[in-house]
Amino acid sequence: MSTISDPGAGNDGFRIGMLINDTRYRSYTFQFLALLALIFGIGYLISNLLANLAANGLNISWAFLGEPAGYDINQRPIEYTSQSTHARASIVGAINTLIVAFLACISATVLGIIAGVLRLSNNWIVSKLMSIYVEAFRNVPVLIWILIIFLAMSNAFPQPRDFRGDDPVASMWFDAVAFTNRGVYIPSFVNGEGSGIFWLVVLASIVGVFAYRRYARSLLYSTGRLLPTGWPSLAILIAPGLLAFFALGQPVSLQYPELRGFNFRDGIHLRLSLIALWFALAIYTGAFIAENVRAGIQAISKGQTEAAAALGMRPGRIMNLVILPQALRVIIPPLISQYLNITKNSSLAIAVGYMDITGTLGGITLNQTGRAIESILLLMLFYLIVSLSISAIMNVYNNSVKLKER
Amino acid sequence: MSDTHAQTVAFVRETQIPPAPPPATETGVIKWVRENLFSSWVNSILTILSIYFIVRGVIAVYPWFANGVWGTSDLATCRQILDGATGACFSVLQDRWRQMIFGIAYPDDQYWRPLLAFALLLVCVAPVLFSKLPRKLLILSALYPFLAYWLIWGGTIMIPIMVMVGFVAGYYAFTWAERASGFAAGLASFVVTASVVWFIGGLISGAMPGFIALQEVPSRDMGGFMLNMILGTICVSLSLPLGIVLALGRQSSMPIIKGICVVFIEFIRGVPLITLLFVANVVLAYFFPPGTNLDLILRVIIMITMFSAAYIAEVIRGGLAALPKGQYEAGDSLGLNYSQSMRLIILPQALKISIPGIVNVAVGLFKDTTLVSVISMFDLVGVLRGPILSSTAWTGIYWEAFGFAALLFFVVCYGISQYSQWLERQLRTDHR
């Protein structure tokens, strides 16, 4: 009883034409073709690669990672000599990348929030200044800013020998910080006996501040009682550390940089390349974050502010309890991508000679060993892992501030 | 009532008091200053601080501009003229502007060609940017890529003409075959027809290399700001179609196609552009058949296009996701197939929403073209860092040179972003 107008229902037979004309099978056909094209494409590229490698007498091998690198790295967060392996050089570079990315992310966020809020200020001159800042930095390549800051610092700062003599040309700030054209020297901590306990106390008081604020907030939400947060946080932050410091007999002291011979010794040496990269990334990305913050605050309708004001809240509380929690929802997704941008842009380190992973693995190691494919593959893998981890972490945070919808 | 009132009250004023002028603090400049600069003590402090910094900045920068020296041929002479005073040596711009704009190797007597090409760019891109202009002008925009190629790279005009003829023939084959048997067949016949025409055209233009020919300029001679503009324009225009395809693929219901697109997009977005440029510089050549020798500039264009396509795909995906589901269902219920409903209903709306995002990607990409200086191509930054700052005449100069570079980029990028904001206002159809 099958009817002609009902194809497929009565005739369960499969015809070859249905692969193209029947929507049930067509997607399989397309996917099969796409897969086939992909396999053939990749196969073609790999066969070209193998042919080219064979023609040039090369091969793919990872043995170079275990060989001595033979070059120096000027910023060594972990132990490294020129006799260390290429793998260790890459790890040093990776840590350097993470250092500058971390510093730049924090400073860019602070800068961006300040600039974004001030841009909405009702103070005309301040908001105009902030828009000049945002437009000037957003519309010029970050590479140019990195180079300008680097060159300006290395030309404007005095040489170390200018600090010498009875009547020196240059002098240190508070006898503690020296700006030279080889870098900035700041005091370092010297950990004496019992310093471990001191640092533990400091760490515990930072955790304590967060715990106290959390407690205050939950108290506010459950009972409506307001606890002061300003001065207690400050007290929790400072008092235990101060007490521990004197109770343990001042276990931690500062060691100031000191001019000895031709250069400064002791203290922490921040190289100009690090500072230029850090500042340029922070200022550049700060301009973008400022725009995100401004857009986030403006996305909250004015009625929210007015409703909160009608309930009798003070402006500070309106910002903290009504506007910011809602604005954060809008701000955080673009903020994540700005953090990713900072991490990726930190690879511009190569332009000022900061030894990040692009400078070690993708620069000197690649040039010395000629292992271009392997090095670049590893380099991409590193950035991929970092990018994916940052977005994973920030997505968890994003979910925690997201609007809980039923 | 009024009578009794008149008897109890001694005096009633019969005319209104003329309105008094508002207090001096509530009008004009004073009111504006009070409201905008000194509304609270925090604001007052901020205002005074800002004014202090502005004044300090102007005092520091003004003599630098005012004492600017023009017309010297090296830095030492300039410093001599300044004699210790603060001042800029703008003569580096005067001395080296050709290298900054056109690169080191572009022939001097041919500068009119890139200049003409970029003047034409402004004309030909206008009908795309401003929908109020007559639609016929779009023909100009379609002609432009071929004309620009001929102007900048030179050679016989037959090559771009033949490429264009291939596209036109392919387009007619596409419309004919699509009407007969669907989109896929149309695409196939486009590819076949265009390839045939290009093959024949290659023979023809190979036979007459001198036909209306301009002096040929090899790619490696491109440089300076011109290179940034070339890379930016080409890569943005190439990555748009690729980005649309990737975005549609990512929205597709077919898991394999979606998977391919997701992996490609996330991979590209997860790595910095520099690593992709390294690939273009040292690795990409390995993936072509042995013996092919691609220009570095072409390899860079391939990688930057892939890079920006991934970002544009994400922007367009946002536009696709923002369309209400009813639009897709409307397409289906009209009996349109996938390619028809995409081309006629979905994409026009989705692209309209994504224009501001696409423009942002384009601005970012244009700024990122400076990264090619890292793989030793002589774009604007590369020319500054290489031949200019390391020449004996100008070593040690940086503010003037990099300030000029920053200004060039600022003008272009700020212009584009102002356009994007204008467009956003034009396209805003809700009432706020």
Large-scale geometry of chain A: globular
Structural class of chain A: mainly alpha
Radius of gyration of chain B: 31 Å
Percent in strands of chain A? 5-15%
CATH fold category name of the domain at 221-432 in chain B: MetI-like fold
Biggest sheet character of chain B: 2 strands, antiparallel
Shape of chain B: globular
Enumerate the spans of chain A where pLDDT stays under 50 for 5 or more consecutive residues: 1-10
**H/E order of the elements of chain B?**
HHHHHHHEHHEHHHHHHHH
- Overall mean pLDDT of chain B stands at 84
Could you say what the CATH topology of the largest domain in chain A is called?
Answer: MetI-like fold
The assembly state of the depicted protein chains is: heterodimer
Strand content of chain B: under 5%
Count of DSSP strands of chain B: 2
Supply the CATH architecture of the domain at 221-432 in chain B: Orthogonal Bundle
- Give the helices and strands of chain A as they follow along the chain: HHHHHEEEHHEEEEHHHHH
Uncertain segments of chain B are: none
CATH superfamily of the domain at 221-432 in chain B: MetI-like
Count structural domains of chain A: 3
CATH class annotation of the domain at 221-432 in chain B: Mainly Alpha
CATH class of the largest domain in chain A, named Mainly Alpha
Describe what you observe in this structure.
- The complex is a heterodimer of chains A (406) and B (432).
- Chain A is mainly alpha-helical.
- Chain A has three domains: 1-59; 86-183 and 270-401, MetI-like fold (Orthogonal Bundle); 188-255, no CATH class.
- Chain A contains twelve helices and seven strands.
- In chain A, helix 8 crosses helix 10 (315-345).
- Chain B is 71% helix and 1% strand.
- Among the domains of chain B are: 24-66; 221-432, Orthogonal Bundle (MetI-like fold).
- By secondary structure, chain B is an all-alpha fold.
- Chain B has helices at residues 2-8, 28-36, 41-66, 75-82, 91-102, 112-129, 138-153, 158-181, 183-207, 224-251, 255-270, 273-283, 296-322, 325-333, 338-368, 380-388, 399-427, and strands at residues 155-156, 213-214.
- Chains A and B meet through helix 2, helix 4, helix 5, helix 10 and helix 11 of A and helix 3, helix 11, helix 12, helix 15 and helix 17 of B.
